[in-house]
């Protein structure tokens, strides 16, 4: 078989890697307080693979032979474990379904093309056969962008791009790199770093997601303030369609009608298979620093981020956690790292003397990149704003820690699942004037959902990805689930999503739509907007062979379902902010 | 009638305003040298309006009555002069056709809706009638985005948005303003400035173009380095479609599938009528300065702009003219302004002593905005780069002059037309590594075309609109035409456009596509890209009522026509730059 790496079939990351709390003394008490869970109870691990009921392969022998002839024996598989790994992404619904042996439909064959010409042949063969094509990158999606539709009667081909993982060329004078779509984050950065370059795109899924997946789902990385969202970073691309390749040459900007580039970005496989992307790359900066700050309250932290965005400063990261997430971050430290021990005690006494309520305190990270003198200039600009809003700098220690463990959080979810708690994330973006309302409404919606379910739940938040006109709010929520965790999860998740819409936020800032967010598309981009997009999909793929049901799924929220969500989770009582 | 302002039916700008050379002593000798034209010969003014043959109105009485009932008697017109003003934009082809009484097809009625609901009713009435709708903003387009198709047998409604010219609301905390699509540049800036804000969007057409037009054609303004292209500035919008409004709420960023916002931007009326746009606005900066610099050569200027884009500096304008355009700029100065008289003589002797060839010297403008200390910091960063590339700062004088007269250039075209010379502009964008090749190939293509035509021609260029990965090159060309100026113009224009494509540039950076650039769409975004876009247009407008023939026109370049253009204007002999 090919040497393409895959995550665990039942959870995040590589086999043998997981979350451990034994070296984090404050973690167990924190979780006990937050969701009432005793993490020292013996875990119940997921079922073993042979306990799964894997649907049989539905594939005509001639089509299978044709695909094998294209990619070779080594690069095609109908093995159960391979097909199961390619069935879901890594949302909590995905993990719960796998753990409960709910896999109604899986791909019938997984193929690993070795070059673009093989992709073209696979696509053309599938179209001739009337088979469904689901492109697969790292499998990290958490919006349901990968799952086959239940009840799909046609053959399903999972087209895994994992072998297309090379940086093909760097145009050093233009700061552009041609990279194959199946390259994962570490593949890309290693190949670029070796020549002094970086792409600067670091989503939380970085270690296990691919360039093609980032483009297909409109990803954004934690340094987007400097490097841009993937839509900004993507300058050119190649996408295989039936019988032809759409080729968009790399251009800094162009005025050629509606943007085909921006039609393909976010298309989640519905228009074709992205094989190659030309991205902006930057010389690795002389200095890169993540500084930590404390703010006395969430409001103060939010106001400071707003003022930084409005100022002449241009940091690479702006991030502030609410008091709950700040407490969580401090509780997941190892005993000896970060703002720790004696130093922390001293700092806390100082803040108390200043009149801070330490329960309200918020942790912030701001990133700086450039020449040493530029970093120093930026820090001065930001420092003055932090001070104006009552904040205080606490140095590089916590920032360095954040930098090291930033990709570890997804492992925590499997740890909690083993112990009967469901945790997931929902994120949105909104104009600055609406962020407080989105925050209040979302917390109220989650709490109302927890109350309705009779569960001990938790929700926390950080602001990240600042723009001129607004920012992203990223929520993490968890609760100890009952016998039907998926139904309970859906109540919480849907309440949160509806709160986003009602308060002026979008259904997702950077996780894509999939099937999970599709019900809010009409509310988000209007009925007329959905019709334009549907027209594009239908004209490009009249037979519905390309990852059908994603982005514009069969399920749109109805007036009744929206009303029910609103009734269940009434909006927080917040001051009316004039619409822009 | 309504008080909506229009430009001259035969040329640029307002009646009574024009270009004068009497106070510019170096202008006449410059033009004599450049294109062999004696500007002191008596001008031949354009024909008078009553010499035009205006096609009759093709409109059913019932449809006319319906439209009049929607907007009122005052806001509908079938008068010849009104219809002619709404026929063309202001390209050289447009001006030549008007001057030669070539107006085969004009709109049959012009309506001026007073609000969005009237737009909706007009659209619905036209769709019911099977009439063509051409949205009209300021009428400044130079790519043929407005003209009715010759041979159009259906009724044509010109939908003039001029009465929708208000800033509706400013969300000061988010830096967002809701503005009606028919607002012209000065309308917008006056209303915003009164409250301390600016949109920062200043295309050359600023004084006569509208927000809706900017969005519909993917405009870019001269301060785009700081404020972004219109695609970046546009955060939300409303567009009227048959029976419904597409509403995109203002969001800083979103992950909702293919971008409907980016489908509408650049759509040139083919998807519907944009009525309202929510744009990013910025507080007016404390300091705004345009500094002038001289570089010893074009290559040095280009290299400096590249290094600025790669550096930590972030100026609001980066612009450098080639030696020819630098000479032109100096020749259009009034005798007493700018780098003038004695001071200039002293400077020139200094530069000569430094070994500069003054014939090769290039003029550059760099803009700075922000607090006083930030402007000073930025100037220091840029100053060091300029010096490294052998450039020299010459202060604020020429920059202030540039700022004052930046919107006057289009008047020069009418002045030259009165004297038998045709002048126009073509602009492109390309990665940094390809700019020199685009420049060389374009100059060679124009010169080859002039030679083939046996005319004395001229072409000059500036770089503007810098991005991380490339920049815009903006060419101005002129020649004394013969008896068939349109045919001659087409030879030159098409040679230039083909050179852009062949050297790695795009068909336009910010002028849109219209019918003029449509033949290069397949070369620019590939055949597959054109098909995706065509599918969008066809699904959104199956009857072809919305500004038909624009962006994807009837005429695509054929392999034969491309080969002919390449043969006529062989590529410059430049070093091969490795593709990214």
Automatic annotation (TrEMBL), chains A, B:
Keyword set for this entry? Answer: FAD, Flavoprotein, Oxidoreductase
Q: Which family does it belong to?
A: Belongs to the FAD-binding oxidoreductase/transferase type 4 family.
Q: Please give the superkingdom of this protein's source.
A: Bacteria
InterPro entries linked to this entry? Alkyl-DHAP_Synthase, FAD-bd_oxidored_4_C, FAD-bd_PCMH, FAD-bd_PCMH-like_sf, FAD-bd_PCMH_sub1, FAD-bd_PCMH_sub2, FAD-linked_Oxase-like_C, Oxid_FAD_bind_N
Q: Which PROSITE patterns match?
A: FAD_PCMH (PS51387)
Q: Which organism is it from?
A: Herbiconiux moechotypicola
Identify this protein by name: FAD-binding oxidoreductase
A Pfam family found in this protein is FAD-oxidase_C
Instruction: Indicate the segments forming the FAD-binding PCMH-type domain, all copies.
Output: 103-284
Q: Which SUPFAM superfamilies match?
A: FAD-binding/transporter-associated domain-like, FAD-linked oxidases, C-terminal domain
């Amino acid at each position: 078989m090919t040497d393409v790496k895959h995550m665990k079939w039942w959870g995040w990351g590589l086999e043998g890697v997981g979350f451990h709390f034994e070296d984090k003394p404050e973690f167990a008490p924190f979780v006990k307080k937050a969701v009432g869970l005793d993490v020292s109870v013996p875990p119940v691990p997921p079922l073993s693979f042979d306990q799964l009921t894997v649907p049989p392969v539905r594939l005509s022998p001639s089509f299978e032979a044709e695909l094998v002839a294209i990619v070779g024996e080594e690069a095609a598989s109908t093995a159960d474990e391979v097909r199961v790994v390619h069935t879901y992404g890594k949302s909590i619904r995905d993990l719960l379904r796998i753990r409960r042996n709910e896999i109604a439909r899986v791909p019938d064959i997984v193929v690993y093309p070795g070059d673009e010409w093989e992709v073209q042949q696979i696509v053309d063969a599938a179209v001739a056969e009337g088979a469904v094509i689901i492109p697969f990158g790292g499998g990290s999606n958490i919006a349901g962008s990968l799952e086959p539709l239940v009840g799909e009667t046609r053959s399903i081909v999972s087209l895994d791009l994992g072998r297309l993982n090379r940086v093909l060329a760097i145009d050093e004078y233009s700061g552009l790199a041609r990279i194959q779509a199946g390259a994962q984050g570490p593949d890309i950065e290693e190949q670029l770093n070796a020549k002094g370059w970086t792409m600067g795109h670091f989503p939380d899924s970085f270690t296990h997601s691919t360039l093609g997946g980032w483009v297909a789902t409109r990803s954004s990385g934690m340094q987007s303030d400097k490097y841009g969202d993937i839509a900004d970073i993507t300058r050119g691309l190649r996408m295989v369609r039936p019988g032809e390749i759409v080729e968009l040459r790399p251009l800094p900007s162009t005025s050629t009608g509606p943007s085909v580039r921006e039609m393909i970005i976010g298309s989640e496989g519905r228009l074709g298979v992205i094989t190659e992307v030309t991205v902006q790359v930057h010389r690795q900066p002389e200095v890169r620093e993540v500084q930590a700050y404390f703010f006395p309250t969430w409001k103060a932290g939010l106001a400071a981020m707003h003022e930084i965005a409005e100022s002449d400063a241009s940091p690479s990261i702006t991030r502030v956690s609410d008091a709950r997430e700040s407490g969580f971050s401090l509780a997941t430290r190892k005993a000896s790292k970060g703002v720790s021990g004696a130093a922390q005690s001293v700092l806390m006494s100082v803040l108390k003397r200043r009149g801070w309520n330490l329960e309200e305190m918020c942790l912030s990270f701001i990133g700086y990149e450039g020449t040493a003198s530029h970093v120093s200039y930026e820090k001065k600009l930001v420092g003055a704003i932090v001070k104006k809003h009552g904040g205080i700098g606490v140095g590089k220690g916590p920032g360095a820690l954040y930098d090291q463990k930033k990709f570890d959080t997804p492992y925590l979810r499997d740890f909690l699942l083993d112990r009967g708690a469901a945790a997931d994330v929902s994120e949105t973006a909104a104009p600055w004037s609406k962020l407080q309302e989105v925050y209040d409404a979302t917390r109220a919606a989650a709490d109302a959902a927890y109350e309705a379910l009779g569960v001990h739940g938790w929700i926390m938040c950080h602001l990240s990805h600042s723009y001129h006109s607004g920012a992203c709010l990223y929520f993490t929520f968890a609760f100890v689930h009952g016998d039907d965790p998926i139904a309970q999860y859906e109540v919480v998740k849907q309440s949160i999503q509806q709160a986003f819409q009602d308060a002026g936020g979008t259904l997702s800032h950077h996780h894509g739509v999939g099937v999970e967010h599709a019900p809010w598309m009409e509310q988000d981009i209007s009925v007329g907007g959905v019709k334009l997009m549907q027209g594009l999909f239908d004209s490009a793929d009249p037979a519905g062979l390309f990852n059908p049901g994603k982005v514009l799924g069969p399920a749109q929220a109805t007036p009744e379902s929206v009303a029910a969500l609103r009734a269940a989770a009434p909006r927080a009582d917040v001051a009316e902010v004039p619409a822009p």
